[in-house]
Each structure stands twice: as structure tokens, then as C-alpha cells.
Amino acid sequence: MAEARTPAQIEADIARRRQELAVVLDEIGVRMHPSTIIGDARAKVASKVDQTAGRAYVAANRVVSEVRSRFVGPDGEPRLERIVPVAMVAVGVVGLLIASGKSSKDSHRRKS
Questions:
Q1: How far is CA 49 from CA 22, 38, 62, 72, in A?
Q2: Angle (nearest 5°) at CA 60 between 78 and 66
Q3: % of the chain at pLDDT higher than 90
Q4: How confident is the model at residue 74 (pLDDT cuts 50, 70, 90)?
Q5: SS3 string of 13-62?
């Protein structure tokens, strides 16, 4: 059978439990405060953004490395047999864009 407790022991037990309950209620108040909830949400979003940015950086770095390996040899020298055709195509595309821009301006002037 349990020992009989004195009124002082009971009062001390009640005071201890009140203190524990006050601590728990304070924790709940902090956790449920809007600024805490907003801060937690911001931290989660920032974490996701960091992860996404990290993945994007790795993917972009991989693409740049692949492109670089196509146009630069292992010794660091440019591969002219690959660079020259690409440069010629780029110049041709720019020339076509300039020519089409001029022709659309000319046709617009004729309509006016």
C-alpha cells in the first residue's frame, strides 16, 4: 500500500506540477505564435530554394563542362575544327536576323 503523504508533500507536488505545466504552456505559446510559424515557414522555403539553386548550379556546371569539353581539348587548346563551323553558323544567323529586320522595316515603310 502507498505511504500516506503529508499536506506539505502534497503542496510541494502540486507546486512542482504547476511549474512543469507553466513551462509546457510557455513552449506551446512560443511554438504557436504567428511570428514563430512564419519564421519556420520562411526557413523551409529558404531551404527548398537553396536545394533547388544547388541542383540548378550543378546541372548548369555539368552542361558548361560538356560544352567546354567539345570545344577545348584536354590540354586546354581550342579545337578549331569545332569552333570555326559554330562561329560561321552564328554569324549566318545574326546576318539573317539583321536582314529580316531590315526587310520588315522596308515593307512597313512601303505600306505607310
A1: 38, 16, 20, 33
A2: 35
A3: 71
A4: confident
A5: HHHHHHHHHHHHHHHHHHHHCHHHHHHHHHHHHHHHHHHHHHHHHHHHHH
> What CA–CA distance (Å, rounded) separates 18 from 11?
10
Residue type, 104: S
In residues, how long is the chain?
112
Provide the 10 A C-beta neighbour count for residue 82. Answer: 13
Q: What pLDDT sits at residue 110?
A: 63
pTM, entire model: 0.45
Q: What SS3 class is residue 7?
A: helix
